Amino acid sequence: MNKESIIKTYELAKERYAEIGVDTDLAIAKMKDVVISLHCWQTDDVGGFETPDAELSGGGIQATGNYPGKAGTIEEMRADLEKVLTLLPGKQRLNLHAIYGDFGGECVDRDQIEPKHFQSWIDWCKKQDIGMDFNGTFFSHPKAADGFTLSSKKEDNRIFWVEHLKRCRTISAEIGKQLNSPCVHNTWIPDGSKDTPIDRNGHRVLLKKSLDEGMATEYSKEHIKDAVESKLFGIGAESMTVGSHDFYLGYAIKNNKLICLDNGHFHPTEQVGDKISAVMQFVDEVLLHITRPVRWDSDHVVTLNEDVQLIASEIVRNDFLNRINIGLDFFDASINRIGAYVIGTRAAQKAFLIALLEPTISLVEMEVAGQNFERLAMLEELKTMPISAVWDYYCLKENVPVGADYIAGIQKYEKEVLLKR
Ligand code: RNT
Ligand code: ZN
Questions:
Q1: Is this model's pTM higher than 0.90 or not?
Q2: What total number of domains does the chain contain?
Q3: Which of 140, 151, 287, 377 meets the CB 3.0–4.6 Å disulfide criterion with 206?
Q4: Which member of 297, 314, 358, 392 is catalytic?
Q5: Whether residue 28 has pLDDT greater than 80
Q6: How would you write the chain as a 3-class SS string?
């Protein structure tokens, strides 16, 4: 796209927004607070680098499709992520799962992982000048095959997963320490049951006990922030998940943890955007897993839809950006995976920019005055304001491809790199 016309279009858009009391330069400046943690697992369909190779299984998470070019090695994965980083405006972080350690071909079980297995990732993040987040991997493992991990009644299995949790926290604290930025450590477990269980309580008692044991060690808040992630159901876990929202919200509040809200993990009529101001009354910080559920927790690539917009708007309206950690959680194996990242991350970023371009104060005034027709009319008008002019200018300023220009770069990378794998 032509640089001059982007600037000219932006200047006009700036005037239009000024008419409704919005400062576009300020909105763009605020985008520096929108830091998105890139989930590594879109590069390889949640495969990981363990020996022997783990098959994605458990908790109803599934990557469908077999588009060519998925990352098969750490080097390929880093190359892909580096490519992605060049196509995104703003600053990102890396969000790594425990199965992505640098194990050097050795068989290192989940209860054996150590900071040294993640040192090369820490170094990579240092080089990229980005922070790093971490997740235990409680699925795709023989000891999770019966559907239970931290809430297992098989004591051997339960202890194994508690040890995994402990080690993930040690690793996370080391990551945060070395990178000088707290590592958000998230725990999601697949535990649940396909058919109506009898002893729901028994499993929840065990989950609480396991979390208490696994998180007993105190680390500096400067190094690690623990989050817990709930889920309503998964394929094969339709009748109950042990770690439900009620369970984890209670746990997070009582133990001063972050609550992770994944917008694929609730009843389809529930809105995560609505939950934010509810939970923020009781927890210090929230972790988001922004995703796109289509009929189920399908983890489609994020697009700019109303769900994502409400999430972003609620955060911006209430000035919550410094209490929200933004992560993404999708894994689509049916399209170019680099493209999936760029579409999804840019969509989330656009939602935040749109939120920053809202004349919130005057909308609240209308609301207080009972002018609900006026409020709805304004909201409709805002949808067709020249958002893209501001977005394009932001990309130009950030020195990344503007508009659809990133498509060609990804096609080239596919031809030169991905299709040769
Ligand atoms: C699963 C959870 C979880 C995973 C990732 C891979 O339903 O959303 O966050 O998607 O940990
Ligand atoms: Zn998630």
A1: yes
A2: 1
A3: 151
A4: 297
A5: yes
A6: CCHHHHHHHHHHHHHHHHHCCCCHHHHHHHHHHCCEEEEHHHCCCCCCCCCCCCCCCCCCCCCCCCCCCCCCCHHHHHHHHHHHHHCCCCCEEEEEEHHHCCCCCCCCCCCCCCHHHHHHHHHHHHHHCCCEEEECCCCCCHHHCCCCCCCCCCHHHHHHHHHHHHHHHHHHHHHHHHHCCCEEEEECCCCEECCCCCCHHHHHHHHHHHHHHHCCCCCCCCCEEEEEECCCCECCECCEECCCHHHHHHHHHHHCCEEEEECCCCCCCCCHHHHHHHHCCCCCCEEEEECEEECEEEEECCCCCHHHHHHHHHHHHCCCHHHEEEEECCCCCCCCHHHHHHHHHHHHHHHHHHHHCCCHHHHHHHHHCCCHHHHHHHHHHHHCCCHHHHHHHHHHHCCCCCHHHHHHHHHHHHHHCHHHC
